[in-house]
Amino acid sequence: MPIDNLINKAYITIIAANLAFAQLASVTGWTGITFIVGWVASVVNRFWESNAKGPKRYPGLMYCGTTIAIILIFGNARLWKSYGGDSVRAALVVGESTLPEEGELISDALKYLKGEPLTDGKFTSARAHVRKVINRNFQLAENALQAGAKFVVFPEANPAITPYEENFSIEQDYALVRPTGGGFSVVTDPMGRTTAFQNTSLPGEHVLLADVFTNGVTTVYSVIGDVFSWLCIVGFMMMLMVTFIQSRL
């Protein structure tokens, strides 16, 4: 398996399993989490292959372990904060798909949505289906607005929320509102904590009403951006330069 796929899988597992560790994104962005994943792997590998005896074998593990402990303390301290204040009611509407499940009509509906030519009969059938679904979704949205929602969100093609999306909300400290079809619609607070969700893989229409926090705080990452990423690049280039110079001596 390519190394980037391995890192991505490790990254996704960490975000999904340990929200405290994910708070590192508010300082370094996703690069910091990827850096820690790679660092842990290299430190463990060096420890495993090292022939050194006694204390000389453990510095890497101690530095890495101390860093992770600090990150977890920071993350848990950040998660102790409870969000309150202003919020707005949102509606996550997942109705019937605009693409039908009956064989040839799927292809016809796709062509209709893309504006491709169709015979009169197929054009009429595809247009009727798409209009029926869109009208029904608008009706669901109107019902949600009458129930107190201030804005309505419809799903896109991606059937599931990803840890990357939660990470972006932690980076910038904003709430995530993510409706999905055939998965889970999710609302999180600015720290990635789930405040509402709904299983949309079940048959039928789905409308999730949830209060979304509109207040947040300024994160370190939102101010400094990708400084940590650039520092990693500069550090890597300096290591290459030192290695090259030493090889020429």
Please render the helix and strand layout as text:
Layout lengths: L2 H15 L1 H4 L2 H4 L1 H20 L9 H21 L7 E8 L9 H11 L5 H27 L4 E3 L9 H10 L3 E3 L5 E5 L5 E6 L6 E8 L6 H5 L2 H22 L1
Parallel strand pairs: 1-2
Antiparallel strand pairs: 1-6, 3-4, 4-5
Written description of the protein model:
There is one protein chain. This protein has 249 residues and is α+β, with helices and mostly antiparallel strands. Helix content is 56%, strand content 13%. A three-stranded mixed β-sheet has the order 2-1-6, with helices on one face. Strands 3-4-5 form a three-stranded antiparallel β-sheet, with helices on one face. A hairpin with a 5-residue loop joins strand 3 and strand 4. Helix 1 packs across helix 4 and helix 4 runs antiparallel to helix 5. The longest helix is centred in the middle third of the chain and has 27 residues. The radius of gyration is 25 Å and the shape is elongated. The N terminus is likely disordered.
